Amino acid sequence: MLRIKNLVKSYDGEQRRRSRAARAEPDRVYAVNDVSFDVADGELFTLLGPSGCGKTTTLRSIAGLERPDAGTIEVGGRVLFSGGEPGKGTAKLVNMPANERGLGMVFQSYAIWPHMTVFDNVAFPLQVRKRGTRPGKKELTDRVMRVLATMELADLAGRQATKLSGGQQQRLALARALVIEPPLLLLDEPLSNLDAKLRESLRYELKRLQRELGITSVYVTHDQTEALVLSSSIAVMRGGNVVQLGRPREIYENPNSRFVAEFIGTSNFIAGVVEAKDGSRYTIRTDDGPLVLDAAADVPTGSQVVVSIRPEAVEVSLSSRAGEVPNEWTGKVLTRAFLGEAVDHVVTVGQHEIRARGNPSVSIAPDTEVYLRFDPNKLALVPVA
Ligand code: ADP
Ligand code: MG
Q1: Which atom of ligand 1 lies nearest, measured to the CA of 237?
Q2: d(CA 4, CA 73)
Q3: Domains contained in the chain, number
Q4: DSSP string spanning 47-88?
Q5: Which of the ligands is closest to the CA of residue 54?
Q6: Domain-embedded: residue 116
Q7: What is residue 23's predicted lDDT score, i.e. its pLDDT?
Q8: Which residue's C-alpha comes closest to atom 13 of ligand 1?
Q9: Is 161 contained in some domain?
Q10: Which residues have their alpha-adjacent CB atom under 5 A from ion ligand 2?
Q11: End-of-domain residue from the set 227, 253, 279
Q12: 322 alpha carbon to ligand 1 midpoint, in Å?
């Protein structure tokens, strides 16, 4: 549906623009540096990464609001942008204007029109169409009211847009993007201006809507939980590159680097060396004892690795099951914290402080000697970069 190939977008470096030498040899900032990905029909595809990694630039390039240096952007087989490949003889430049791309867009700031009613805000994108493609009055009203009903705003159609709550304003922005029935919806941090509670409820709302309407979407966020909840696929970005691409679960359970593991959730990292390998079963030697785990990756014996252990993969217990199950270590509880639906323990083991998250029925006081068990299926092997 959407195909991005070798997208590059750079800007003049700000700092050095002032000096003469810099003008001769400008220092480029590569906001997006050779990004490729495909989004299938009906998918909600998320670009996830820290601030400044190039998410917005990628999205604006798709929208036609930025002109990339190179690469191709296709939607449903239609070429929106093609800048040829640098160094390979430039193919003919295609750069379709934003308003001809017909894509839906929702941004962090709602950008609704304050002087208009809810109805008029949604009707506007249809009214400004060229004669011939503009729907008649009856059809226009039907379409606007249908979208407002989907967004649960029909009762507020006559209200001034500024008299809506933050959540309603963001639903209005979404309605306005959807009314043109775009083949592709682009969303740039649409929930990040809302308070935590509203954000969470709108998250599920968005997911439901996206499923119901089956609308192909590219969603930009720096919030890992949001990405995990909403997405069918996630591309994790860093410094203008996609560093990992996969289903949310794959990325969470098998991060391919320490950066991804840390970014996508809290994790414990334990350095070690591959001592033995039997098919997919690895034995890792660490300063605090051996760890056994299963990993699909092919890492040779003797390699330096980091084992990533999610807090929820750590069981804290007062009794030993050594000999029954692998990966039992002993340690001492440093702190515990009650979180409502879970209890966190931080347990000191040798050099490490290991974070565990578990059922609130197990809550163990600081200074207690405990057994820690790690499920071999839930440990991830992260190659050392
Ligand atoms: P994100 O949305 O992931 O936070 P952006 O795509 O907005 O990141 O920015 C990526 C990088 O490009 C950043 O280093 C940013 O400073 C730079 N950048 C973005 N827009 C411009 C611009 N108009 N001029 C110069 N640098 C820019
Ligand atoms: Mg951004």
Answers
A1: 3
A2: 5
A3: 2
A4: EE-STTSSHHHHHHHHHTSS--SEEEEEETTEEEEE---TTS
A5: 1
A6: no
A7: 55
A8: 52
A9: no
A10: 56
A11: 253
A12: 52
At residue 2, the pLDDT reads 97
Atom index in ligand 1 nearest the CA of residue 12 equals 25
pLDDT at 201: 77
d(CA 92, CA 46): 30
Same domain, 365 and 289: yes
List, chain by chain if needed, residues with CB within 6 Å of any ligand 1 atom.
11, 29, 31, 49, 51-57
At residue 21, the pLDDT reads 55
Give me the sheet containing 352-358, strands edge to edge.
314-317, 369-374, 328-338, 343-349, 352-358
Q: If you measure from the C-alpha of residue 224 to the centroid of ligand 1, how many angstroms do you get, rounded to a whole number?
A: 20
Q: Which ligand is nearest to the CA of 235?
A: 1
| Ligand 2: centre distance to CA 363 (Å) | 40
CATH of the domain at 293: 2.40.50.100
CA of 62 relative to ligand 2 center, distance in Å: 14
The closest of 186, 177, 151, 164 to 116, measured between CA atoms, is: 164
Residue 158 Cα to ligand 1 midpoint, Å, equals 38
State the Cα–Cα distance between residues 215 and 207, nearest whole angstrom.
11
**241: nearest Cα among 51, 37, 33:** 33
How far from the centroid of its chain's Cα atoms is residue 292's Cα? 31
Whole-number Å distance, alpha carbon 6 to ligand 1 midpoint, is: 18
Give the sign of the dihedral formed by CA 58, CA 62, CA 67, CA 73.
positive
Q: Which of 57, 221, 224 to mutate to test the pocket of ligand 1 (most atoms within 8 A of CB)?
A: 57
pLDDT of amino acid 91: 62
The residue length of the chain stands at: 385
Chunked in runs of 10, what are the mean pLDDT values of the chain (385 residues)?
96 63 67 96 96 96 95 95 67 86 84 90 89 88 92 92 89 90 92 79 81 91 87 96 94 89 84 93 94 88 89 94 93 92 93 92 95 91 72
Q: 138 in helix, strand or coil? A: helix
